[in-house]
Amino acid sequence: MTDRYDHDAIELKWQKKWEDAHCFEAKDDFSLPKFYPLIEFPYPSGAGLHVGHPRSNTALDIIARKRRMEGFNVLYPIGYDAFGLPTENYAIKTGRQPELVTAENIARFRTQLKRLGFSFDWSREVNTTDPAYYKWTQWIFLKLYEHGLAYKAEIPINFCTSCKVGLANEEVVDGVCERCGGPVIQKVRSQWMLKITAYAQRLIDDLDTVDFIDRVKTQQINWIGRSEGAEVDFRIKGVEDTLTVFTTRADTLFGATYMVMSPEHPLLAKWAGSIQNIAEVKAYQAASARKSDFERSELSKEKTGVPLAGILAINPINGETIPVWISDYVLMSYGTGAIMAVPGHDARDWEFAKKFHLPIVEVVAGGDVQKEAYTDCGTGVMVNSGFMTGLQVEEAIEAAKAYLEEKGIGRRKVNYKLRDWVFTRQRYWGEPIPLVNCPACGWVPLPYEQLPLELPHIENYQPSDDGSSALSRAVDWIHTTCPKCGGPAEREADTMPNWAGSSWYFLRYADPHNDSCLASPEKLRYWTPVDWYNGGMEHTTLHLLYSRFWHKFLYDIGVVPTPEPYQKRTSHGMILGENGDKMSKSRNNVINPDDIVRELGADSFRLYEMFMGAFDQPIPWSNSGAQGCRRFLDRVWRLQDMLTDGEGIRPAMQPAVHAAIKKVSEDYERMKYNTAIAAMMSLVNDFYAKGDVTKAELHTLLTLLSPVAPHICEEMNERLGYAIPMYITPWPAWDPNALVKDTIEYGVQVNGKVRARLALPAGLPTAEIEKQALAQADVLPYLEGKAVRKVIVVKNIINIVAG
RNA sequence: GCGGCUGUGGUGGAAUUGGCAUACACAACGGACUUAAAAUCCGUCGGGGAAACCUUGAGGGUUCGAGUCCCUCCAGCCGCACCA
Questions:
Q1: Is residue A781 predicted with pLDDT exceeding 90?
Q2: CA-CA-CA-CA torsion for A509, A511, A515, A520, nearest 10 degrees?
């Protein structure tokens, strides 16, 4: 037999066998125990599969295969998230239709994924750009609209000057476009919004009911940004109006020495006639409008602002008259767009007050408010605060809230940083929004039976510089009749963001060909929720949050049976280039999976991706590491030459084999793939040390290894003469008795340092163990002239305390 | 600034959750086989060295015993960031 196995022949042979046998197709037999693992469906980019995809795919393929071997009915599906900018940009660049490009990219991805031998149920493939699929994306949108969760708003949005498209807050990273890195400016535009904020509290609370890794939970909680506080109404002199602020520190009301409004605050227009320096105010507003949010915070070192001359507020807690300013350090998008400024106890207010010589009043003792704001409130005691003086901060917050409510000048309020989801894009390659704007009836939804509203073919789908939608040029399509009154009307020309199709795709897998509902209730009841979802951390505040929101909505309207979509969420670390940098074309450090598969085979590739390091950590790629994994599989292959006639697992091999079963079984479940593989390598080393292996011993190894390297294991299993293919071979159990050793190797310590090793038969009385340890020749010199105070025997450690 | 994560050989990383630090690999080196190379097999491989001893980013603490727990720093990565 040759030293190296022929990976191409073996892998292609088994991939064909699996496909012909349809053995990985999930069965809609509701009497079986089910398991639904899910990986994030890929975006089929023109670059082909990235080495990052197989990391997640292999990890859950291992779990999926193991579950089948344990008797579960497994649904491990795959699909394509194919709408979106990169495809459209690529199509524009090459002058080809996006649907053609998409079809090609999907075909390439499918070939690449199949070549890696994932046990996907290919009969359930979904594609978000398929009208039969986006029919239901549109259907969900209409349901959201029907329930008042989709609304049109004239708001300043983030606009990427390079992609020429509006972006959600989540898509703006460091002031630039997440996708292309282009500068993002604010543009006021009429947009469809989804009221995700209505679900803010439930999105936090229900994290308690699911098994997500802590990083994901904390990141979502921080993103939603709940804070408890109070709204306080300030009377404004001169305009007979009220200005409401939000504060988490109602205790500091006595320290509020001025107020600040955001330059965009709507009351400013109303008060314009009474503002004596209105020209100056307008100039400041105009200057702020030109800045992006990013510039505003970048310039945070230096605060700017203008006082509203002629406008004065009355602090409701003490009746004092205080000035009102505008400044862009106050954001319209949070709270009420106005604040009460407490410079003594807020760093930003302090900075502003110092610059503009506004009074600073101490209301919590403990710092020096003339030197810096005293924001630490842990043990602080109130001063200069009327009825609150002498209270602890926590008590004062309560007292102040109670006071506000009693006097009717304020109320308890919870605020969230989370903002509603800007749901429209001005690009071509997305789901059309199934709404019609009728001059007589306003916005009218398409009747459900008219779905899908198909994306029209147009010649020129380039985005326009002015930010208007590409579809607005599809004149024949735009002009339609109102479904309600039959009069002439126009379709919505914006499309959905590509987060739309991915917000519910896991539901479609349960029933992908259903044309009468998004998935049948029985199938959803059986298959959902997803049992285990693995994906990237970068989707924590995007896809993961959006899809939880949609799912909760679908639960509320009775479409899905559970309030949460995913029972368990884990995350993989990114694979870096060999030099430790992020892989990118510009850094010239991209590893192409095809090359690795060609050279080493799919099994070695999968094995290395799991062995390279801790699954949840970022890891640099290493070509020689990958070769080492191939070397291991060759070593496994050559075990066939070392077969001996022994029956079953020989007594001498029992501890090693059963320890491996235990280790591998447990480590797969904990996603400790690297140590599971190390354990199998050790077992193989044991076989080599012994010089031979029995059929049963080898078969056990192959069974454990088959989820990671399925092709070579199937081939060897067949050659060993086993009739049952690996993928339905029962997962082995370990025998605890086989792990019990009859001798125990103790480390003998004196005062915590190992001085000797001692092998003793198991089950000796402690007194005897101590006696033996104290008699060790290697130990005696360290006991010279010392009294033995105590001997501690724990597990396989004997510690002699002497002094 | 806030939140999270990480720090162990030349490299990727192990360590049964407080119990013999450096498993398993990669790289390197030596040997066998070969005319030779590749492949393969067998060895060596934290530092220091005659031994003692030292070693998990630094310093302190708890403990019979600390990579692991506590405190104070340092460095790096990621997320959020004028959120009132």
A1: no
A2: -130
Alpha-carbon Rg for chain A, nearest whole angstrom, is: 33
Query: Considering only CA atoms, which of A588, A712, A581 is closest in space to residue A639?
Result: A712
- A241: exposed, middle or buried (C-beta count within 10 Å: 0-12, 13-18, 19+)? middle
- The nucleotide closest to A247 (CA, C1' atoms): B84
Taking only the tens place, the pLDDT of each residue in A300-345 is 568 899 999 999 999 999 999 999 999 999 988 899 999 999 999 9
Rounded Cα distance between A736 and A734, Å, is 6
Q: Which residue has the tokens 């105070």?
A: A789
What torsion, rounded to 10 degrees, do the Cα atoms A618, A621, A626, A629 define? -20
Type of residue numbered A115: R
**Distance (Å) from CA A225 to C1' B8?**
37
How many Å from the CA of A32 to C1' of B32?
Answer: 57
Rounded to 5°, angle at Cα A740 from A736 and A746: 140
Nucleic strand B under 7 Å from the C-beta of A801 = yes
- Give me the percent of chain A exceeding a pLDDT of 70: 97
Tell me the per-residue pLDDT of A614-628, one tens digit each, with 9 for 90 and over.
998 888 899 999 999
Residues lying close to strand B (Cβ under 7 A), chosen from 329-358 of chain A, are: 329-331, 333-335, 337, 339, 342, 346, 348
Q: Which amino acid is at A595?
A: D
A352-358 contacts at long range (C-beta below 8 A, 24 or more positions apart): A352/A260, A352/A303, A352/A305, A352/A325, A352/A327, A353/A257, A353/A258, A355/A303, A356/A305, A356/A307, A356/A325, A358/A257, A358/A258, A358/A323
Name the E strands within A641-737: 643-644, 693-694
Q: At A187, is the secondary structure helix, strand, or coil? A: strand
Q: State how far the Cα of A102 lies from the Cα of A129, in Å rounded to an integer.
A: 9
**Does the CB of A634 sit below 7 A from strand B?**
yes
As a whole number of angstroms, the distance between CA A573 and CA A395 comes to: 45
CA neighbor of A626 nearest in space, from A584, A660, A667, A592:
A592
- A530-A536-A671-A669 Cα dihedral, nearest 10 degrees: -10
Residue with tokens 């100056």: A280
In this structure, what are the phi and psi dihedrals at residue A741, rounded to the nearest 5 degrees?
A: -95, 150
Is residue A374's beta carbon less than 7 angstroms from any atom in nucleic acid strand B?
A: no
- Cross-strand pairs, A383: none
A746 CB-to-strand B distance under 7 Å: yes
3-class state of residue A248 by DSSP: coil
A409, two tokens = 């000048």
What is the ipTM score, two decimals?
A: 0.94
Burial of A745 by CB count in 10 Å (0-12 exposed, 13-18 middle, 19+ buried)? exposed
By the 8 A CB rule, do A562 and A528 touch? yes
Euclidean distance between the first and the last CA atom of chain A, given in angstroms as a whole number: 63
- CB neighbours of A464 closer than 8 A, spacing ≥ 6? A164, A426, A470
- Say which residues have a Cβ less than 8 Å from residue A354's Cβ, sequence separation at least 6: A343, A360
Residue A528 has pLDDT above 80, yes or no: yes
Evaluate whether A44 touches A105 at the Cβ level (below 8 Å).
Answer: yes
Whether the bond into A183 is cis, omega within 30 of 0: no
Sign of CA dihedral A689, A690, A691, A697: negative
- Distance set, CA A668 to CA A605, A660, A665, A771 (Å): 18, 12, 6, 42
